[in-house]
Amino acid sequence: MSNIIDNLVRMKNLTSIMVKLAYSDLFYTDTDLSKFLEEMNLEIRNLEKDTLKHVFRIRESDELRINILELMEYVKDIGNACMNITVLKSKGRVLPFTEEMIDSSEERAMLVNVRKSSILVDKTISETKVRTHTGANIKAVKRKEKWNFHINKKTILKRDDVVFAVGDADAKKLFTKVAEGTLKTVY
């Protein structure tokens, strides 16, 4: 049962990020997050397959199995909805009032690559004081092909990590410069 729970939690975490990224991709003209969304959606599909294997092995009631399958279907629907949002942008169907929507929304999602020259490399989130100095709140880190959703002040940032964070427009600009290594100090 623990594999099922772990997979469902991971699927939920992925879709949570996907929702923020899909809207950011739609609203901001300077982003192309569709690649990341596709990767996350594929991971959800793989988790679904793995979970299905476990669901039919557990000795639980049929009702519990049905509930698990329904939950997986709902999570998968959220992932698909996020993919559909990115299709709007690719077809040039961005609404004329999106700028107004963006201005009224304070939280923005960001995916930032940590470059070799960044002051963040090989330091914990606590050491870098990212949130204090940039306003960006790190929510997840992708290292190689694996997303880590268990972020805390002891999480170490590495070169080539992809960091998912939220913050306002200024936080996005500042955090991007720090992560990319173009800004060496933030005070």
Characterise this structure:
- With 187 residues, the protein is of the alpha+beta class.
- It folds into 2 domains: 2-90, Phosphate transport system protein phou homolog 2, domain 2 (Methane Monooxygenase Hydroxylase, Chain G, domain 1, Up-down Bundle), CATH 1.20.58.220; 106-180, Regulator of K+ conductance, C-terminal domain (Alpha-Beta Plaits).
- Helix content is 56%, strand content 14%.
- It contains 7 helices and 6 strands; from the N terminus they run H-H-H-H-E-E-H-H-E-E-E-E-H.
- It has helices at 2-27, 34-55, 62-90, 98-104, 125-128, 130-134, 169-180, and strands spanning 108-113, 123-124, 137-143, 146-148, 156-157, 162-167.
- The strands form 2 sheets. A 4-stranded antiparallel β-sheet has the order 1-6-3-4, with helices on both faces. A two-stranded antiparallel ribbon has the order 2-5.
- A hairpin with a 2-residue loop joins strand 3 and strand 4.
- The radius of gyration is 18 Å and the shape is globular.
